[in-house]
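Note to self: user wants both folds in one dump. Writing first protein now.
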Amino acid sequence: QAQLVDGGGGSVQSGGSLRLSCAAHGIWFSIIKVAWYRQVPGKERELVAESYNGAPTNYAETVKGRFAITRDTDKQTAYLQMDNLKPEDTAMFYCHVRTTAGRDYWGRGTQVTVSS
């Protein structure tokens, strides 16, 4: 059964970097959209970045210039490179993909903690 496996979170100091990963074995070649969301306790999940095939990536204003989505087809994995992290980036991050069949898949989430 196809599933997403996300990871790469951790604890870093302000100004540091992390690279989140989203392995999508079994569905990679049917993906039309890759996105990352984040959520903090008590708040709604918010879009961080989304990338449709062949279109420019859309980033939340709060992460523009610091975050970037990349894809590695050989590894069937998408990444969210996060640089110059700030304490307000602390959240649980979730990978999301949509396939050509219109089906949505979510990762289980990976925690990112940024200390000042």
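First done. Writing the second protein, which came from a different request thread.
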Amino acid sequence: QVQLVESGGGLVQPGGSLRLSCAASGSIFRMYAMAWYRQVPGKQRELVATITTGGSTTYADSVKGRFTISRDNAKNTVSLQMNNLRPEDTAVYYCNAKDSRLRGYWGQGTQVTVSS
């Protein structure tokens, strides 16, 4: 079982950047597919970006060209670089890990607020 802790959220103006990090512990990190989700009150949790064990990535259409997901297996971390942020990116962002049996694990979330 893996434990996940997100960091890096905060308040940023439109057009600004933030970098979220997720630190994993308790298991063999490189064996997990990783993803970032986000959620606003009253809405379903939305998939933002994924990265496989091999490093292949996918993105939601709403963030393509602005967000970049990456992983460092030596440091047991996955990051989300967010550029050109928009007010509609405001949400709680969650780190997710999925093992080979498709069992999912979640972090506690980190708030991102984009506002002037």
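Dump finished. Worth passing along: The first strand starts at residue 3 and ends at 7.
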